[in-house]
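Re: your question from the hallway

Yes, I did run it. Sequences:
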Amino acid sequence: MSVVLVTGGAGLVGAETVARLCEAGHEVIACTHRRAHIVTERGRHLATRKWAEGTTVEPGAVWTLTADVRREGLDLTPEVIDSLAGRVDTIVHCAATVDFDAPTEVYDELNVGGTANIIWLASRLGARLVQVSTAYVCGTRGGEIPESVALAVPEGPEGATRFQNGYEQSKYRAEALVRAADGLRWTIVRPGIVTGSSTTGYLRDRSNFYTVVKLIVEGRLRRLPGRYDATLGLAPIDHVADVVTAAALAGPEADGRTVHAVGARSLTLRQVSDVLAEYPCFEVPRFIPASAFDAATLPARERTYFDRIGRLYVPYFSRRREFTVDGVSELFGLEPPPIDADYLRLLLDDSLDVGFLCARQRTLDEALSES
Amino acid sequence: MTVSTTHRDDRIRRLVAALAPSQPDPAALSDEARLVDDLEYDSVMLVDLTVGLEEAFGLPQQPAEELSTVRTVGDVVALIERMSGGGA
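Structure:
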């Protein structure tokens, strides 16, 4: 029976994909690196067994394989690679850093080099590749962002100016490697900003975007450069995992196709601001034109929060764009969940319920005075 | 270890403990305790800790690369020792 190999199997999108494939009755090898446990959004620890050829895995359990995508051959022994040949017919490549301020070497090694190593493995195994990219490979473009288009970007320093950060550029370069790979069958999935479930609002790992929201609503970032008509392409985790899973199980119709895994419609900063104002415990940020914003005028501590975190998100608060989402319904019959004020309320309510926002924790001043 | 480094070490541990949601006993914090996995730090608490340490010890803003390697209480103590000029 065929097996799906998922890199980044313990990560946010990877673990959900592994769980879905497993529930659908498929054999899955989850490649993990630092984390050993595969935990789903519902907090379920999947039963795992170390990959070994010749044995079977009980229904509902997944194989695990410790691998390092940064290393040639994923740091696997020739024997292990031989054992995968003839078994693995699809690779889902989720492993990547999603940090916006990682050093260039990390992007080169992990996001770009990792994809090169996965292309090698796919070719060695004769497997199809589902590349998990990002909708933000669109970089600095605004307006309607189409799917299924390889975006033309010049090489070198001139090309770098087309992206908002090194992360976007690294994911773009990784996509380019996939598209250029000889004889490879591939599908590219481009998630937006991964946020909580479309039905419960829950997200297991609240980092990145959630961090800046927390700093904003708790009053540590009060002023930010931005436009109220700028849009955020939110992507509920359940939808992203549904799309990646469907792409993994798809036939030749998905070959050479690129799809956005983003909710239907984008959220404007005006909507965000209006919803935040409904919550008495939240501070509402002021978005001011970039030309009128000067970080040097911020109070000392707010300046630090801005320098460390706020500035990384400024590009996302300054552009109006809509990601087209026709691909997932056409190819997989999936309906992107609506992104609107109600969905944002769901995310915020859940973050309050779990104590991520506005929990009565010690403030930094209290902690400093106590210590 | 000199008196001043012991004092600094203690203050770092007290701040790490005070910012952690579970409010652990600072004296019981081992060097191996991981900020995120064991002490349940989230991304904002990590920034708060950084800002707090910089303010408490009068340190210049630390580059992101330095901080990306900090995972445990021992890493925090070692970083502050280094930034404060060794055992001075």
